[in-house]
Amino acid sequence: MTFLLGTPLAAVILALGFVADAEARESSCGIAIVAAERQLNRTVDQRAKAGPSARETTFATLGRQPTPATVAGAEKRLEGWAGGVEAAAALTRARRADAHGRAAACRAEVIRARKALRAPPH
């Protein structure tokens, strides 16, 4: 009887270990992604407040919230700031890499996003 009780318990402990390990792998880069997304949002907000405005799109009038990528795209069209679009794309790639457990690729994309945010407008 001890064997039967011990086997499921060992399986649960082993499974929890794998889950905890997977969460640690995801969160190690996931934390960096969240921080970079916050930086992107702050930068886009600052640029939006300081820059020119544009007409509201039909999409915006439907009550949908813009994503950082769409806001960055609008900024690029208005001011020629490609950094926001590049940062948003890099963060999308980082999330994809993180979801697939490719930590090195995830970190590299987060670094690309941060560099793009620091780049001057062109």
Would you give an account of this structure?
The chain is mainly α. It has one domain. Helix 1 packs parallel to helix 5 and helix 3 packs antiparallel against helix 4. The longest helix has 49 residues. It is globular and about 40 Å long. The N terminus is likely disordered.
Average predicted local confidence, pLDDT: 74
The N- and C-terminal alpha carbons lie at a distance of 72 Å
> How much helix, percentage-wise, in residues?
over 70%
Q: What amount of the residues lies in strands?
A: under 5%
Q: Judging from the principal axes of the Cα atoms, what is the shape?
A: globular
Radius of gyration, in Å, reads: 21 Å
Structural class per helix/strand content? mainly alpha
Q: How many E strands? A: 0
Q: What's a concise summary of this model?
A:
The protein has helices at residues 2-50, 58-61, 68-79, 82-99, 103-118.
Keyphrases for this structure?
single chain; 122 residues; mainly alpha; 0% strand; globular; disordered N terminus
Ordered list of secondary-structure elements with their pairings:
Layout: H1 2-50, H2 58-61, H3 68-79, H4 82-99, H5 103-118
Helix pairs in contact: 1-3, 1-4, 1-5, 3-4, 4-5
